[in-house]
Amino acid sequence: MIPMNTWYVACTPDEIEGKPLGRQICGHRMVLFRGPEGQVAALDDWCPHRGAPLSLGKVCEGKLVCGYHGLQMGCEGKTVAMPGQRVRGFPPVRTYPVVERHGFIWVWPGDAARADAALIPDLFWANNPAWAYGGGLYRIGCGHQLMVDNLMDLTHETYVHADSIGQPEIDEVAPVTRVEGEHVITERHMQNISAPPFWRMALRHNGLADDVPVDRWQVCHFTPPSHVMIEVGVAHAGHGGYHAPAEHKVSSIVVDFITPENDTSIWYFWGMTRNFRPEDAALTAAIREGQGRIFAEDQQMLEQQQANHLRHPTRALLGLNTDAGGVQARRIVERIVAAERALAAAPTPVAGAGAAA
Amino acid sequence: MIPMNTWYVACTPDEIEGKPLGRQICGHRMVLFRGPEGQVAALDDWCPHRGAPLSLGKVCEGKLVCGYHGLQMGCEGKTVAMPGQRVRGFPPVRTYPVVERHGFIWVWPGDAARADAALIPDLFWANNPAWAYGGGLYRIGCGHQLMVDNLMDLTHETYVHADSIGQPEIDEVAPVTRVEGEHVITERHMQNISAPPFWRMALRHNGLADDVPVDRWQVCHFTPPSHVMIEVGVAHAGHGGYHAPAEHKVSSIVVDFITPENDTSIWYFWGMTRNFRPEDAALTAAIREGQGRIFAEDQQMLEQQQANHLRHPTRALLGLNTDAGGVQARRIVERIVAAERALAAAPTPVAGAGAAA
Amino acid sequence: MIPMNTWYVACTPDEIEGKPLGRQICGHRMVLFRGPEGQVAALDDWCPHRGAPLSLGKVCEGKLVCGYHGLQMGCEGKTVAMPGQRVRGFPPVRTYPVVERHGFIWVWPGDAARADAALIPDLFWANNPAWAYGGGLYRIGCGHQLMVDNLMDLTHETYVHADSIGQPEIDEVAPVTRVEGEHVITERHMQNISAPPFWRMALRHNGLADDVPVDRWQVCHFTPPSHVMIEVGVAHAGHGGYHAPAEHKVSSIVVDFITPENDTSIWYFWGMTRNFRPEDAALTAAIREGQGRIFAEDQQMLEQQQANHLRHPTRALLGLNTDAGGVQARRIVERIVAAERALAAAPTPVAGAGAAA
């Protein structure tokens, strides 16, 4: 149940800094590297010579040199040279449309002819100096939909993250979910509560008292295939909460890009972007470290949940009001996958260039 | 070939001290915990909300609180509460009959309607202050019948435990096996031998000379499904051996409860109970440590034997006189399993309460 | 695609020094040990009593004593004794023809009736005091043919072993491959180049200048089932290269015996034999250490290549001129395996002794 004709985050730029990266995405083993003008290429991780993984090689002057016998692969999936060989007849390897944008490398694992860079989500904060982003990557042994469920139902914070961002008050306020086309929004507003440790830290870093009652909000946005952005924040109580003026609140956006490795494991790109003190690199690092520690707490639960589901694949789950965000997201994904299957059964369109600009 | 309508040791009380325990027993993943009056419950390790393992949660006031979203599960397999939810319609999870007795938690993995606490073996020593018990738990990657074979043929001590309880004389005396209903007894009596290291230690701890000839005995008792109790001991030679007066001998009972995790691995609850110096906790600890070290020596052999059998599932084994105990035990288990299958094919009885008292 | 009616190196003598060795060869789990006159025996690793691996036992006076219950197995696969038992009727276990020769233990995993010790390769250097050998053993998770490919195409040295024996000049000279019956020879001669680090070391150890131009050669010899001997060396440039007089060159033979564990993993016996300073044990050790480090560099590439092939079992590979050695070797092996299959389908010959002298 994985949409293929869509953009996923494949990696971050640091992962292909001067070297190739091998990564399985949606069941396809790819190698990513930078070509001669610095553009990113994504190819089948297969040397056409003897089937060695190209990702074990090196990048030299924008060519990917196989680490076994020196075949030089170009960004277009064509062998451009090999010592002592004429390479014109070498079979090409599959390329995947790939785009670098907003600080991420995006790949389209499905039908290249349908790839359109305009479909990459617009991250308004990504290139805005008023905002600072920090994040990381975890590999988690669960299907992408379990991770979306996790992020669209933050009541789990009370239990999984009891020591950091969790607090009983989350449970006490029912979330409200609405669907706008393929956009699912689940929001929860808590009033006049005490801030949990993570937010006390953020208040202090923002020059605000951390020991006074606050209003707290969580607005989760799902968009397909598996992106979840969560507007989170606290304001000193009584100033309007989510709508409070900037001097009374601290807020940020939790950024989650979930890329299936296969049906039961994911590359989880997590992070946070904020619009206060964006120039403060130490604060970025502190938030990143705290978030990394918190998000690591989900791993065991998600992986054991996945294992339980594999043991009992036909057991029904409950869909409570708190699950509405995940349930709606799942429906959208199911519709998309059904449409892709119908499309695959239909006549093929005229093939495009096979790589997005 | 695992009997299901029977009691197995699921765990020891310390394993559910203030927290739930997840354990697979006879192929069923269960969670065990203590309810509000301290009674033990065993449930399917599955939260009816989203399928997370309940064993990752916490026990609060006798309720098992799911570690993911806070669903509160009761001892009867029914959800008793969940923040912000009405839980009356939540589907129950399977419960397993469970009884705490004789210092162990016993579980009945099969048809709950047939569970009868009166079928739990009567361990006469368990609640008798004249006896002291110490033991431990190993997970071993072999089927339960290989472990029963091991315990019903102690000639292996000469080879596997050469440095502790093994001695050539064991080999030199043929064991005698008899069957009494579902009870298999294999016994061996060695006369006028020197005591091996473990028994020299026991003699010394019991105030007896350890450097004189002894008579030694091993009386192995198998009862279904996979319990083996071994009366073991030495007496100064010439005083009657097994029947010698107490002042000339030191003896104890090796206690083995073998609980299948699945077809090829077991939870091996091993221990020893003795009726000399029962108040001596240091002696209990010393024996326990020695026994733990000795019983660990079997692990590699049993696991490699199991692996060999999986490679060659149809190869015949020899059934020598020394194997008679294991062979007879296997026949009894086969009859029990055949009877269970016949029962399962027959009309179901009226279901009982589903939990033993 | 593994020839069975042939000799493979099973182990080296040190591996059965005073103890049995369990090893899987061509899918058969064997136990190897020395019998009463020091002769080597290879048996099925299965005790006929209860199916325990005999390799967990001990060797006592040339008998293999099972580590579980003391059954004593003889070199002919027959139980010779067991405490308290009459063993005459015990079923024998399979024996494999086995021969100790040239410093290796050779085993014939196929039809014992066809085993002929005269078919063991003649290693002229093995018992010659003018030559010294040092080597080691790696287990590598790839099929034997991938390792043969590796050794018959040394262009990989430039990439995999760039820091030791690799150099760009290898790529620049095309290898020439010829087939003589079941013998495949691939040779490459490089002229007037600088010696790479490994050879500079060898030149110095041989009392030759290491900073002058050299001629370098590599002559790879494949013989079935999977033996590769490589004549390698350098001579000070202009003295005739491979044919230069001894005082101007340093040379040796890379010795590779590749024994399939199963279809996708091998026991790789690697080594080097040289005819200079054979008495210098420190030099032998230094070369062995250097070679071990270099050959370890292939492991990741070979294992990842194997994994890639398993993912895409039907994808075609290129067969370039540099691959000719491996390609020809593969054809020979395919012919041998086809002939074995035809033989297996034909009437069986009268069975021989079942063990080679």
Automatic annotation (TrEMBL), chains A, B, C:
Keyword check for Oxidoreductase: yes
Keyword terms, alphabetized: 2Fe-2S, Dioxygenase, Iron, Iron-sulfur, Metal-binding, Oxidoreductase
Keyword Cytoplasm: no
Residues of the Rieske domain: 7-107
Pfam families: Rieske, VanA_C
InterPro entries: Cholesterol_7-desaturase, Rieske_2Fe-2S, Rieske_2Fe-2S_sf, VanA_C_cat
GO-annotated molecular function: 2 iron, 2 sulfur cluster binding; dioxygenase activity; metal ion binding
Name of protein: Aromatic ring-hydroxylating dioxygenase subunit alpha
Source organism: Rubrivivax rivuli
